[in-house]
């Protein structure tokens, strides 16, 4: 029963595809009802969950609009009455050489990947602290630990920030019944990595460094998000769980 999420309400951002969609479906498979928030108007994730017999509702929103996040969170709470789990997955990457990186592009990446994540975590944290329990799961990256991303200065900076913020919030909220952790996916086959996978030299160099011998698939994130969302992780706080096929062990 440690991994049973029956009766729990999970807010998952950035779930129109890729790992966000897989994690939303994984949480639903474990019994959670899902509030799916993304910039897309696609109802695909919600329909997938309902097809499994689960409960899900869709909210289409621009998560980079920081001023609108308060109303968004209030709407999300209103759908099922509360939020028990927040998965901060929404994010973007813009691959531009650092010397030529337009400042606005840098700011856009940080705004969505880090500032929006902080504000949603803050809103959810207040809500959860009042009730004495909750789980916040941020999506970090291998580039939360390394500077080796090529042409990804904004993304690397934002994901380093996600790792630090995860630990800072965990320090403040663990004693109040709210666990804050992060998942750091390795190289996963998603839209965000399409450019890398289409470059045969980069694709092969990355593949050769992964001990598992393959790129990850979005479904590889299901188990880790269910663990961090469930009672199984009640004494885990401030941890960044690498789901990377052994990449960080090299």
The total of helices stands at: 8
Rg, Cα atoms, Å = 17 Å
Average per-residue pLDDT, rounded, comes to: 96
Proportion in β-strands: 15-25%
Task: Explain this structure.
The protein has 250 residues and is α/β, with parallel strands linked by helices. It is 42% helix and 15% strand. It is built from eight helices and seven strands. It has helices spanning 18-29, 44-51, 69-80, 103-131, 153-173, 194-197, 200-209, 222-229; strands at 9-13, 33-38, 56-60, 85-88, 134-139, 178-185, 240-243. Strands 3-2-1-4-5-6-7 form a seven-stranded parallel beta sheet, sandwiched between helices. It is globular. The mean pLDDT is 96.
Report a brief summary of the structure.
This protein has 250 residues and is of the alpha/beta class. It has eight helices and seven strands, in the order βαβαβαβαβαβαααβ. β5, α5 (153-173) and β6 form a beta-alpha-beta unit.
């Amino acid at each position: 029963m440690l991994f049973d999420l029956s009766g729990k309400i999970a807010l998952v951002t950035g779930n129109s595809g890729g790992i966000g969609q897989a994690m939303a479906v994984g949480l639903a498979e474990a019994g959670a009802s899902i509030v799916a928030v993304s910039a897309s108007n696609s109802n695909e994730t919600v329909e997938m969950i309902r097809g499994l017999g689960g409960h899900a509702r869709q909210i289409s929103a621009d998560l980079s609009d920081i001023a609108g996040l308060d109303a968004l969170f209030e709407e999300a709470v209103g759908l099922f009455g509360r939020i028990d789990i927040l998965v901060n997955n929404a994010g973007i990457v813009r691959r531009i050489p650092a010397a030529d990186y337009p400042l606005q592009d840098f700011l856009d990446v940080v705004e969505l990947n880090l500032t929006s994540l902080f504000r949603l975590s803050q809103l959810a944290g207040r809500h959860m602290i009042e009730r004495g329990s909750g789980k916040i799961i941020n999506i970090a990256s291998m580039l939360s630990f390394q500077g080796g991303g090529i042409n990804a200065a904004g993304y690397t900076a934002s994901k380093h920030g996600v790792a630090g913020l995860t630990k800072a919030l965990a320090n403040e909220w663990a004693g109040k019944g709210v666990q804050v952790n992060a998942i750091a996916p390795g190289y996963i086959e998603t839209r965000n990595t399409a450019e890398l996978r289409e470059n045969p030299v980069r694709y092969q160099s990355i593949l050769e460094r992964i001990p598992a011998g393959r790129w990850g698939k979005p479904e590889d994130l299901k188990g880790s998000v269910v663990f961090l969302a469930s009672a199984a992780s009640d004494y885990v706080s401030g941890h960044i769980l690498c789901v990377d096929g052994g990449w960080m062990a090299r």
